């Protein structure tokens, strides 16, 4: 006899609540009972919707990546040059209100790197999503190799700056470095 089917709308609601819980409480100590208690559901409900803790972790990674991309994709897509797109991405991701979300992002990124086979989808897409948006922001006249190089530089630099900001809290120093970097994007080299 087959179990009851998963209600995908309810699964997404639960997943968003679990991601919110993980943003607030961290990723390393995530376990069924505390999550279920915080969401006012049974552990069986979580198991029904996610199957296993490993599946839940994969779902959290994917949803977190989707949230971060959604929060910046509209800004990136609205820009018509790399410098403006990179500045919009930096301003959105470095907001103090987003700090907990990005702490979780870096924690799960590290977890995914430690178990690449388990988190292959996250790893495949965490850079590719941004690459596509930043390539597009450069316009169709930029050579693909140049667009890839510039997009890679933006992703790596902004993530490094954000990690520094989250680690040190030294906003003035990191913002100064971000401003300096963003100024270099006004005219990419060939």
Automatic annotation (TrEMBL):
Membrane-crossing residue ranges in chain numbering: none
GO molecular function: DNA-binding transcription factor activity; transcription cis-regulatory region binding
Keywords in alphabetical order: DNA-binding, Transcription, Transcription regulation
Name of the featured protein: Regulatory protein TetR
Residue ranges: DNA binding: 31-50
Domain HTH tetR-type positions: 8-68
Keyword Magnesium annotated: no
């Amino acid at each position: 006899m087959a179990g009851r089917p998963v209600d995908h709308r309810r699964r997404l609601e639960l997943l968003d609540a679990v991601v919110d819980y993980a943003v607030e409480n961290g990723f390393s100590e995530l376990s069924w009972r505390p999550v279920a208690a915080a969401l006012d559901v049974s552990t069986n409900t979580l198991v029904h919707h996610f199957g296993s803790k490993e599946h839940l972790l994969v779902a959290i990674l994917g949803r977190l990546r989707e949230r971060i991309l959604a929060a910046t994709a509209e800004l990136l897509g609205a820009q018509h040059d790399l410098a403006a797109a990179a500045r919009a991405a930096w301003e959105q991701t470095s907001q103090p209100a987003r700090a907990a979300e990005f702490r979780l992002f870096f924690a799960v990124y590290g977890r995914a790197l430690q178990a690449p086979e388990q988190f292959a989808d996250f790893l495949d897409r965490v850079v590719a999503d941004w690459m596509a948006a930043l390539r597009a922001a450069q316009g169709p006249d930029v050579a693909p190799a140049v667009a890839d190089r510039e997009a890679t530089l933006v992703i790596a630099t902004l993530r490094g700056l954000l990690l520094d900001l989250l680690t040190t809290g030294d906003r003035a120093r990191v913002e100064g470095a971000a401003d300096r970097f963003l100024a270099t994007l006004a005219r990419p080299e060939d």
